[in-house]
Amino acid sequence: MNEINSIGPVRQNGAPEKVSAQQPQKSGPSFKDTLQGFLSDVNTMQVKADESIEKMAAGEITDVHQVMSTVEEANTAFNMMMEIRNKVMDAYQEVMRIRL
After folding, report:
1. Partner of 93 at 20 to 30 A CA spacing, among 1, 38, 53, 64?
2. Beta bridge partners of 75
3. Does a structural domain hold residue 12?
4. CA geometry: angle at 23 spanning 19 and 28, to 5°?
C-alpha cells in the first residue's frame, strides 16, 4: 500500500499546523509602482503631444513630421495602457468568478 506524505507539519492530534506565511523578499518595484510609473509616462507623453499641437498651431513648429511622431507615440502608449487595463480587469473578473 502506498503511503501518503503530509503537506506540512502535523500536530499530535493529526491536524496540520498552521504555518506562518513568510513575506517574499522584494527584488524590484511592486506591480503598483510599475503601473503608476507607466501612467505617469503616458500622461507626460499626452501633455507633450498637446503642447506640440499647440506650438504647431501657433507657428512655433513648422515640422509636421515631428508633431505627428509625438502624437503617434502618445497614442500608442495610451492604447497599450488601455490593453493592460483590459487584461487586468479580465484577470480580476476571472478571480471573482472562482467559487470557494
Report:
1. 38
2. none
3. no
4. 155
**DSSP track, 24-76:** PPP-S--HHHHHHHHHHHHHHHHHHHHHHHHHHHHTS---HHHHHHHHHHHHH
Q: Which residues pair with 16 in a beta bridge?
A: 10
Per the domain annotation, does 41 fall within a domain? yes
By residue range, what is the domain housing residue 44?
A: 31-97
Q: What is the pTM of this model?
A: 0.65
Above 80 in pLDDT, residue 8?
Answer: no
Return d(Cα 48, Cα 71) in angstroms, integer.
8
Would 40 be classed as within a structural domain? yes
What span, in angstroms and rounded, lies between the C-alpha atoms of 9 and 7? 7
> Region 69-95: what's the mean pLDDT?
95
The phi-psi region of residue 75 (left if phi > 0; otherwise alpha if psi is between -120 and 50; otherwise beta) is alpha
pLDDT per residue over 54-69, tens digit each? 999 999 988 899 999 9
